[in-house]
Amino acid sequence: MSEPVANVEAPAAPAPKPKRPKPKSMIMIGEQTAALFENARLAKERGEKVGWSASIFPQEIAETLGLNVLYPENHAAGIAARHQADPFLQECEGALGYSNDLCAYAKLNLAYAAVLNGESEVELPDGGKMVKPDFLLLTNNICNQLTKWYENLARQLDIPVFFIDTCYNPFDYVTETRVRYVRAQIDQLIKDLCAFTGKTWDDERFKKIMEISQRNSYLWERANGLLDHKPAPIGGFELFNYMSAMVCNRGKESTTAIMEQLNAEMEESIRKGTSTFPVEQEYRVSWDGIACWPFLSHNLRTLKKYGINMVASSYGKAWAINYEDLDGMARAYCFASTNGDNLTTMLSRRLEALRQFDCDGTIYHVNRSCKVMDCQMMEVQRQLSELAGVPFTSFDGDQADYRNYSEAQFETRIQGLVEVMKQNKEAKNNG
Amino acid sequence: MADLKENLALLKAACDNPKARLDYYLAQGKKVVGCFPPYTPEELVHASGMIPMGLWGGQVEPKLAKSYLPAFACPIMQSDMEFGLNGTYEGLSAVIIPAICDTLRCMTQNWRFGVKSIPMIPIVYPQNRKSPASVDYLISEFETVLTMLTTITGNMMNEAALCRSINIYNEHNAIMRRFAQVANDHLDVITPKVRHAVFKSAFFYEKGEHTAIVREIVEELEKLPVCHWTGPKVVLAGITCEPDQILDILSENQVAVVADDLAQESRQYRADTPEKGGGGLKRLALQWNERYGCSLIHELGKPRGAMLVKMCQETGAQGVISCMMKFCDPEEYDQPWYENDLHDAGYHTVAVSIDQQVGSFEQIRTRIQSFCEML
Predict the structure, then answer these.
(1) In chain A, positions 118-177, which contact chain B (CB-CB < 8 Å)?
(2) Spatial strand order in the sheet of A50-53
(3) Rounded to the nearest 5°, which phi and psi values hold at B337?
(4) Interface size between A and B, measured as CB pairs under 8 A
């Protein structure tokens, strides 16, 4: 670690505590994830068509049709978090000829797909549980790189893409013409998917799935909201563990059970005044950007050292998608990801979160994989800091490429932020 | 009528000093609207009686832009932001920014808050062009652009003016395609640098004026004896192939450019606006559906490889230079595919890194020299 540049002494690390047992909700999510991959494998064995999907695609449609769908972004995050990304990144930038500049989720997945397609020989650390897809479900509400990534997968694997173009929102609302365009695409998607998979659309089932999805979104948002208690009942990073339920299983009752359990566990902690965050919560911060999966534990260790709990995140809440009908669905998916929204919308969402969760600071992840997050971040930082009166820091990292992160830089930046947050706190306490 | 040399010099001068072109139109009492790359509905600006002017950056070191964009953002956007912030673009009545890639999404917002003296008009082109609803959606985007143009500039268009502008733009498309063909018989005169200037200058002229100049150039070229070029012939692919020093390296190695798949050049002119099919706005929307072979427009099947093979076959090019704009992810996703397709068809490729802020060209020189030896 480099010499500290800020005049803040790190408190001594607490003595190691015995490992606490996994909460029931975490066991449930593990089972759900295993079932997702196993069901896809079994479906493939039965000769059914299996899809890969962008993470903020209206999955309720596939769920209504009873299709098995897997999520490359989620899968790539898992590989990166388990420090298994390197051979895939090397293969993608080497034999496959892609640029180092591209999104690391895409690079990981394109290399993984090449293995499934018999074009590469990288050993699959998970035994190939991300089974080879027969079709792709694409939306670009997160970014335009997804469009290119899926174009390439489609050619590589010679499979169709079912695309919903959600269009960036340069204005503070989703224009009605966007809603009409997206709604027309949803209607066409339903017809095309039925024709391709041989499944039949059932309106009643769709209504049921929508209800489940809405309930899950509500429960997810509620769980996120419970972090506004002091002390927050859990460490904010723990919520990242539950994201797969919302990303991959938003329309399933198993997610309802997990979310209810999670809410119950958090409420229990609030009642007892306890928290799973292992040290005293000196500071509350918001986290801007995707998790830095390869270094999540280093991030957490560093924050813990200063008693910083991440209580608000713009990222996880992207999957709290609320709507009541197909028009509403079209509007909601246009507006789901803040990557698809203009700066004023981003600001208002972040300002609301900073106030709701009474944050002392913001940490911006300058995610080298994600230009759409980075290329307007500096203006967001300036305006948000001024509006909220809350200091910020940023660090260089990546959602999946371990080469774009420096532990020393992260530690130094957090030290600097703590210095300012400490001064602010002292000033507040001194009136 | 100016002679060939004078006309070519005129267009080169426009590329070397676009600001002079801006000042020229402003002095005439015209309003000028800046158009960000790669596609904007220039016809709407033109039909409103104003001059659309392309904003393709330039060689400037980003200083002020560093407060808005990270180092790994597109070099053109870095330059455009710098020029916006340092006052180079003062005089423009507005800019139109197409949110067509992730960086351009953000540019709409950076400009909106960073360069408040020049209002920003966003446009978001549809990417699912197979959906019939994309046409109505795009018409509504055009209408938003028109409303904002009118509000900002006070200039309004009507249907007749739009139809006239569409004709002017189609005529311009046709003369640019004709120029590209005729140029290949005169590669001694139309060097890579000269060819580039003829294409790029289109962004700094009212299109009718540019058509007139290029038409004269074509007519003069046709009077010259055909040059049987013996050096290597190549196709350029990418966003741009700038600055001129790169094109000089091609000339030093007797390399001729016989076609291009550059966003700044021929991609602009591949698709005309249909003459029929509805009112002007609808026909413009239909033109968007006709565009092809561009990394920034969604198409299935990665068709650029086959398109480039065909271009090589038709022009006698022996290879393709991938002009890789630094940090341009749409191009980076296409490159491995079109290069593989070209290799499968027996064509050579070389990639050179394009950066508006580049200081040294030695690496590019070495790569081009090796490439020529291969050819």
Answers:
(1) 140, 143-145, 147-149, 151-152, 154-155, 161, 163-165, 167-168, 170-171, 175, 177
(2) A68-70, A50-53, A135-139, A161-164
(3) -75, -50
(4) 154
In a domain, residue A372? The reply is yes
The alpha carbon torsion through A340, A346, A349, A353 (nearest 10 deg) reads 120
pLDDT tens digits along B31-80: 999 999 999 999 999 999 999 999 999 999 999 999 999 999 999 999 99
**Residue B355: exposed, middle, or buried by beta-carbon count in 10 A (0-12, 13-18, 19+)?**
middle
* Contact predicate A79/A91, CB 8 Å: no
φ/ψ region of B6 (left if φ > 0, alpha if ψ in -120 to 50, else beta) reads: alpha
The one-character DSSP state at A136 is E
Give, in order, the Cα–Cα distances in Å from B57 to each of A93, A190, B96, B309: 29, 43, 14, 30
A180 CB neighbours in chain B (<8 A) are 133, 136-137
Taking CA–CA distances from B71, the nearest residue in chain A reads A375
CATH code (residue B87):
3.40.50.11890
Query: What phi and psi, each to the nearest 5 degrees, are found at residue A322?
Result: -110, 130
Please report the pLDDT score of residue A315 as a whole number: 63
Same domain (yes/no): A127, A226:
no
Q: Which residues of A332-343 are buried (b: 16+ CB within 10 A; e: fewer)?
A: bbbbbbbbbbbb
CA distance A350 to A340: 15
The DSSP call for residue A38 is H
Q: Dig out the tokens for A249 from the structure.
A: 């299983």
Domain that holds residue A66: 24-201
Q: Rounded to two decimals, what is the model's pTM?
A: 0.95
Number of domains observed in the structure of chain B: 3
Give residue for tokens 């080469």: A403
CA distances from residue A348 to A335, A355, B122, B347 in whole angstroms, order as listed: 13, 11, 20, 53
Same-domain status, A129 and A276: no
| Cβ proximity of B66 and A377 under 8 Å | no
Residue A201 token pair:
């659309």
| % of residues, chain A, pLDDT over 90 | 87
First-to-last C-alpha distance (Å) of chain A: 36
State which amino acid sits at residue A200: T
- Confidence (pLDDT) at A15: 60
Same domain, B138 and B211: no
Residue-by-residue DSSP string for B159-174: HHHHHHHHHHHHHHHH
- Cβ contacts of residue A266 below 8 Å, gap of 6+? A223, A226, A233, A234
B329-344 and B304-315 are packed helices; what angle lies between their axes, rounded to 10 degrees?
A: 60
- Residue corresponding to tokens 């904007």: B40
Task: Give the residue carrying structure tokens 């899809």.
Answer: A51
Rounded to the nearest angstrom, the minimum Cα separation between A206 and chain B is 23
Cα–Cα distance measured from residue B225 to residue B146, given in angstroms and rounded to the nearest whole number = 47
Q: Quick one: tokens of A374? A: 């980075």
The ipTM (two decimal places) reads 0.96
Note down the domain range covering B79.
31-157
- The answer to whether A222 and A263 have CB atoms below 8 angstroms apart is yes
Residue A188 contacts B, CB cutoff 8 Å? yes
Q: What type of residue is B22?
A: L
**Is residue A64 located within the same domain as residue A144?**
yes
